[in-house]
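dumping this here so i dont lose it
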C-alpha cells in the first residue's frame, strides 16, 4: 500500500519538543534540498511543533504558534475535519504528510460550521515565514508543497465519486479501498486497515446515516467482503476489489 509520507516513530527525539526540523521528519522535503545544503537547511527549516489533544481542538492554537503561518503539516496521527451544513455532516480524514489550514475563515454563499478533532496522539508542524524564506533559497521545497496539495485534491475528487455511487454498500467498500491505499497492510487474509472508525464517522465519509451504514457493514461482512475483528481492525477481502470494479452488484438493501 502507498502513502504520501511515512511518519517517524513516536519515540523520536523531536516528539516532545516545541520545535522540529522539517527535513528530519519529512523525507520529501529533505530530498528537495541538495546533499551539500542539508545541514544549513535543517537549521533554516525549524518549525513550531504542537501535540494535539485527543478529541476536538481549537484551530487558533496553531495560528498563534508561528510567525505569519500559512499552513500546517500533520506529522503524526489522524485528524478528522467535519463540516455541518443544513443539519447534515460530512467528514474528511487527514494523515501524516497532509497539509491543512484550519484557522482560515472561508467566505462563501453557503454558511456552515466546521470542527477539527484528533484520534490519539497527533503532532502538527506550523509552516510560517521561515519556510517561505527557505523556499526562495531551495525552490524545490515549494514543489513538494504543491505536489502534496495536488495529491490531496485527487483524494477529494475520488471521495466525491465514492459518495455518488448509488448503493451504500458500494460506497463503504470503495471508501475502505481508498483508505487502504494510505493505511492498508497486505496480509494473507486480505488488506488490513487499522483505523478506529465508528459507524457514524463512516457515514459522514460516504454521505449516509449511521443506521444505513450499520446495515451495509452487516451485508458486507455476511459476504466476507469487509470484516472487522475484535481489536477493531478492518479486513478487505482480496476479491472485494474485483467485485467493486465489476458491475458493482452487492446483495443488499435499496440505494442509500
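and the seq i came up w/
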Amino acid at each position: 500500500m502507498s502513502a504520501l509520507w511515512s511518519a517517524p516513530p513516536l519515540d523520536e527525539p523531536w516528539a516532545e519538543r516545541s520545535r522540529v526540523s522539517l527535513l528530519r521528519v519529512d523525507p520529501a522535503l529533505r530530498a528537495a534540498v541538495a546533499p551539500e545544503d542539508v545541514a544549513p537547511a535543517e537549521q533554516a527549516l525549524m518549525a513550531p511543533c504542537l501535540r494535539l489533544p485527543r478529541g476536538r481542538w481549537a484551530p487558533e492554537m496553531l495560528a498563534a504558534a508561528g510567525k505569519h503561518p500559512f499552513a500546517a503539516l500533520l506529522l503524526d496521527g489522524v485528524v478528522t475535519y467535519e463540516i455541518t451544513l443544513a443539519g447534515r455532516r460530512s467528514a474528511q480524514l487527514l494523515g501524516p504528510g497532509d497539509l491543512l489550514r484550519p484557522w482560515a475563515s472561508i467566505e462563501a454563499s453557503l454558511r456552515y460550521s466546521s470542527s477539527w478533532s484528533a484520534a490519539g496522539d497527533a503532532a502538527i508542524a506550523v509552516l510560517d515565514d521561515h519556510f517561505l524564506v527557505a523556499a526562495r533559497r531551495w525552490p524545490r521545497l515549494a514543489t513538494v508543497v504543491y505536489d502534496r496539495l495536488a495529491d490531496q485534491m485527487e483524494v477529494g475528487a475520488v471521495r466525491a465519486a465514492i459518495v455518488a455511487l448509488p448503493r451504500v454498500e458500494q460506497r463503504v467498500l470503495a471508501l475502505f479501498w481508498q483508505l487502504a491505499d494510505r493505511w492498508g497492510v497486505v496480509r494473507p487474509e486480505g488488506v488490513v486497515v487499522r483505523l478506529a472508525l465508528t459507524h457514524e464517522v463512516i457515514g459522514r465519509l460516504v454521505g449516509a446515516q449511521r443506521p444505513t451504514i450499520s446495515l451495509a457493514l452487516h451485508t458486507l461482512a455476511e459476504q466476507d467482503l469487509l470484516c472487522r475483528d475484535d481489536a477493531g481492525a478492518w479486513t478487505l477481502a482480496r476479491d472485494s476489489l474485483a467485485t467493486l470494479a465489476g458491475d458493482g452488484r452487492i446483495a443488499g438493501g435499496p440505494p442509500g
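The two ends are 29 Å apart (CA to CA).
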